[in-house]
């Protein structure tokens, strides 16, 4: 699969998962829902790997890194985002997550010593400006006394955790660990961590058989976790964390469209202007990737 197809798939899938998370809230505690999601996703990956006859046996050193990946990328950040989504609109949560672009640039520099091109930085900044314009009404209402403030802070911490998880994944790929096996073990460890956390807190393991909960769980596990992470982490290994992370700048646009359909979001001149700026930023960041996008194929895992 070419880089451009990986990029589009990542944006469309993850841009829609924010709304799906809304249907997970209610009967089942967030800790348990996250555990269900990644247990199912891990089972799918292990089954797929077994069918393809790939190996899942690795030394303890590798499992420690898989566990760290699970803690950062498949446990902590999602739990915090589930809590945040209960307090904020899906669009605003997506806006906060888009700051992963900046965190990836910072952490890429700290972990790998990688310098980002000025064009990448400027494009990301332009995208952030567009997002701020789109969601200015929500940002303008920021108040430390509001419950939404807690959700915003949770989203920031969750985003930074996700960025650190990106660094762990990129490091695993540099060392030659396949994405499929790394994700399978990481998701399993992340789910087990959530189960342990829920048990420690005495949270009941409830289940909601409603079509809304079941449908959103399947969508989040299969598309949001298995397919989405597979596309994104493959992209991350090919073009770097800063460029791959820029897909997050487009997530809010998808979330905004879904909010228009399902949450009665009202378009304004500012919203239109913000979307245009986001698109321009996208062109700046991806313009230098043209040679890498054309004719690239997914490596066998």
How would you explain this protein's 3D organization?
The chain has 301 residues and is mainly alpha-helical. The protein has one domain (3-293). The chain has 14 helices and no strands. It has helices spanning 3-22, 30-51, 60-85, 90-97, 100-112, 118-134, 136-140, 147-174, 179-200, 211-239, 241-245, 247-262, 269-286, 290-293. Helix 3 runs antiparallel to helix 8, helix 5 (100-112) packs across helix 8 and helix 6 packs parallel to helix 12. The two termini are 13 Å apart.
Précis, in short:
The radius of gyration is 19 Å and the shape is globular. The chain contains 14 helices and no strands. Helix content is 77%, strand content 0%.
How would the blueprint of this fold be written?
Blueprint: H1 3-22, H2 30-51, H3 60-85, H4 90-97, H5 100-112, H6 118-134, H7 136-140, H8 147-174, H9 179-200, H10 211-239, H11 241-245, H12 247-262, H13 269-286, H14 290-293
Helix pairs in contact: 1-4, 1-10, 1-12, 2-3, 2-9, 2-10, 3-8, 3-9, 4-8, 4-12, 5-8, 6-12, 6-13, 12-13
Range of strand content: under 5%
Between the first and last Cα atoms, what is the distance in angstroms?
13 Å
Number of helices: 14
Structural class: mainly alpha
Order of helices and strands: HHHHHHHHHHHHHH
Radius of gyration: 19 Å
**How many strands appear in the DSSP assignment?**
0
- Envelope shape: globular
The residue fraction in helices comes out at over 70%
Low-confidence stretches: 289-301
On the 0 to 100 scale, the average pLDDT is 83
**Biggest pleated sheet:** none
Work out the count of structural domains. 1
